[in-house]
Recover the amino acids of this structure.
């Protein structure tokens, strides 16, 4: 079963300072704009440099027996950055505490 606080999730800050939590269900999580086909699991309004399908997050959970570690791999499709790095162009495993930025601005 899915346990929210034991599984990976994204924490987003909106322009008003509100915090939004996005739990990452096992499998592929699509990040992009509202109203797309296929549907984006984490969807934002058009603008701020977010593309219709911006990136994929692949959540591989630990085994049912709790052995191993859950991983989240970022598969960039459009402009993505981790921890103020250069643009990420290839798939990469995210680490706890990483800051993921989609698009050219921090807004």
């Amino acid at each position: 079963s899915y346990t929210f606080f034991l599984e990976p999730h994204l924490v987003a800050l909106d322009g008003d300072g509100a915090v939004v939590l996005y739990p990452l269900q096992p499998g592929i999580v699509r990040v992009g704009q509202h109203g797309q086909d296929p549907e984006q699991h984490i969807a934002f309004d058009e603008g701020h440099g977010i593309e219709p399908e911006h990136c994929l997050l692949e959540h591989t959970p630990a085994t049912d027996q709790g052995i191993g570690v859950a991983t989240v791999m970022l598969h960039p499709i459009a402009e993505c950055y981790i921890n103020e790095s250069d643009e990420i162009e290839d798939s990469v495993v995210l680490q706890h505490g990483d800051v993921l930025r989609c698009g050219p601005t921090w807004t």
About this structure: The chain has a mean pLDDT of 86.
